[in-house]
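For reproducibility, we list the full input for the zinc ion complex.
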Amino acid sequence: MRVRLRNPDRVVDVPGRRRVSELLDELSIDPDTVLVIRDRTLLTREQAVGEDDEIEVRPVISGGAGPRTPMGCLRCRAPAVIEVRRHHAAFCQPCFERHVRTQVERAVGAFDMFAREDRILVAVSGGKDSLALWDILLEAGYRATGMYLGLGIGGYSDRSGEVAHRFADVRGAELIHVDLRGEYGFDIPTAGAKGSRSTCGVCGLSKRYVFNRVALDHGFDVVATGHNLDDEAATLLGNTLRWQTEYIARQHPALPAREGKVKKVKPLHRLSERETAAYAFLRGIDYVVEECPLVAGNTQLRYKDAMNQLEKGAPGTKAAFFLGYLDRAAERFRDDTGAERLQACERCGQPTTGRFCAFCRARAQMLGERLAPPRDDQLVRELSNEAMPAEVYGAGPAA
Ligand code: SF4
Ligand SMILES: [Zn+2]
Ligand SMILES: [Zn+2]
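The corresponding predicted structure, in tokenized form, follows.
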């Protein structure tokens, strides 16, 4: 059989007939980190694949091994298309879609994320999570508008933009498209090469800034992002290993609005990456499978790897870690949120604790622009504590 592997793309020929689990074992692939697809249909690990089959093994970067799950759907006993190991369950397609929607409804209800009449801005990257989220919200009848931010990462960004637009066109949904270079004069590859932040650091900063700004300008009530359980568990692990208590305190599925910041929510935080990938696939959503070419610098991947190792030995570890944090530990970090007073950035008006917001400072650094000079001695002292290149503020009169 021909087996197509992704990231990087390659094809291997495997002789003979065997079960999916045996095939993955031979290829040294953790079955819970991939979807196995034949003729646009998902295969469970107990199904057999034969000599003439063409198989795609599509990575989802997930985890969760454990005892064998039954072949029948947990709810209706129809043949299962997917196992969810941490629930010791398998589902047929309709029951799996229902399971996914139920998890989202639970998340929305438990954290009072939004109401029927709210206008939701969905941060759409073109990947499985954000498109699955948009699909779920639209199907449930919410007023969900997508927003795609063009990061300028070559063909990867072009393809991501195309799938986001196609998704919107097919459903007749509204999509706001903002181009970082067109609107703000820089793209992410340039920012990574020029600025003092890491590429992913400036990318994350830009996304947070632009989504908030667009939401405010267009009168949206809330910004929804596609962060899933794997993302949240990995981030919590990273923050905990360094005891970054302020970040831990802010890692919440619903951050309320405050002074110039729109409410932010994560309705997929109860679902693993494999579940969102399977949902997107089963719903026929065409998403970008390839990874961002700049992902090598993303430290979160190390924590995802570590969580996957733990999950492999003890299914349910990720959910116990992150959902357990929300249930039993989040409250203890509440005083660490560092809720300083915010004021308007002198350049763009967005909220910030200093004189200029982090986005304007990073942008000025990249573009070699000068922000206004310090106002007085006290401010000079304040700024000297910030990691700020002198050329950003300049020494002369206000620009
Ligand atoms: S991997 Fe890094 S640079 Fe690429 S989209 Fe994600 S955060 Fe941005
Ligand atoms: Zn069923
Ligand atoms: Zn600003």
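The domain at 2-94 is CATH 3.10.20.30 (Ubiquitin-like (UB roll)). The radius of gyration is 23 Å. Both points were considered when choosing residues for closer inspection.
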